[in-house]
Design a protein that fits this description.
2 copies of one chain form a homodimer.
Chain A: E1 5-8, H1 17-28, H2 34-43, H3 45-53, H4 62-76, H5 83-92, H6 102-110, E2 114-119, H7 123-133, E3 139-142, H8 153-163, E4 170-174, H9 177-185, E5 189-193, E6 213-215, H10 218-226
Parallel strand pairs in A: 1-2, 1-4, 2-3, 4-5, 5-6
Chain lengths: 227, 227
């Protein structure tokens, strides 16, 4: 059975959040290693999403959650930063660079099938990232439309419903096994894409042996799905 | 105050539904004037949308509503058509041609601002139309996301919220005064675009004296907003 539509995780899978956020920390004048600050900020993300999903935190989009976790990070480190500078750091998540294979890989995949995002980032953030990186999608889908965050199954199911395909005809592409696992539990097919530099040089390579496809980049995925 | 984002009505404003649907009627082998059949089918659209909005009809997407109104049309005319042929007629709404200025007009507008759809058509239908016409949007927004149809104010407000702009910073572009009127009541700005051939040659030209802009095509709109 051919895959009818492909949905992409965005942060880490399509865009390099660590370099862009570290640059913004560097420009902020805050003391400390900007990459370590970026990693700390990002590491706070799974917990707040889980809090939204379990109802202990009200719905907030990524700008709101990023600001809340930045406030926590700065407060724990006793760092001062005026509101405008905090806003610039939150804004850095809107201007991240895609990995080098992404623009052409999406174009190649779009020739044969529908290509969408399926990100926890909100729609307006995805619009900015797609414009910034000149990335062309057929449609931007976001957890915002479900008011629940991945890996909640309703997010993946909503994507299939909005694209008018069966869950099993939709493939989620991500660099994160937890996301692919959520997609599988919702009945989607899955492709793992290696992004060995997402957390900088050093961490051991991830893998997802359960994924239907495992590829090193999007051009490889296009080739695999064309075959 | 500059317009930050532009949202487009689609059927009639960006794509020529009448020619494409008439062609499909012609191919169906049904007796009668295919353009008259297309006009009759389209004329049934405001009433079913109003029924969804007032709660007397359950939510249905455009494929479902088009099938229901086609069934009515055929039954009133005592015309027979097998289910597969009815499905092909419903499918014709997924493969309509854009008006000649649309592709380049959208590209021009996208250089300076966010460009989205805001159609009563469902997301998957908009995906097919954008792919068929090679139309590039920053994002596809649909009444489907609000589970209410234009001119219900929540549809326009949802578009502003998802694009993260104030209603007054969002401009709806449409060839239909009823749609622009709904947008105005929700606080949006409006642009009327002339589509004198939407209903074929003959009907008197429409106009919307209350619109912020009135233009003959999208390139004119891009020039107006750039000024």
């Amino acid at each position: 059975m051919p895959v009818r539509a492909v949905a992409f995780d965005v942060f880490g899978t399509l865009v390099d959040w660590r370099s862009g956020v570290a640059e913004a920390f560097d420009a902020s004048g805050l003391p400390g290693d900007p990459h370590e600050l970026a990693d700390d900020w990002r590491a706070r993300y799974p917990r707040v999403l889980a809090e939204v999903n379990d109802g202990s935190r009200p719905w907030g989009n990524f700008d709101e959650l990023h600001l809340a976790t930045l406030d926590d990070l700065l407060s724990e480190r006793s760092l001062e930063l005026p509101p405008e500078a905090r806003g610039r750091l939150v804004g850095a998540w809107h201007r991240l660079q895609p990995w080098p294979d992404v623009r052409s890989g999406l174009e190649e995949l779009r020739r044969r099938r529908v290509v969408a995002t399926l990100s926890n980032g909100h729609v307006a953030l995805l619009v900015d990232l797609a414009r910034h990186g000149d990335l062309r999608f057929d449609c931007l889908l976001s957890a915002e439309l479900a008011h629940a965050y991945k890996p909640a199954p309703e997010v993946y199911r909503l994507a299939a419903r909005l694209l008018a395909v069966e869950a099993g005809d939709l493939m989620l592409v991500a660099a994160h096994p937890w996301d692919l696992d959520g997609a599988r539990r919702a009945g989607l097919r899955t492709a793992f894409v290696e992004r060995p530099l997402e957390y900088g040089p050093g961490p051991p390579a991830r893998a997802d042996p359960q994924a239907d496809e495992s590829v090193s980049d999007l051009l490889a995925l296009a080739g695999r799905l064309a075959g």
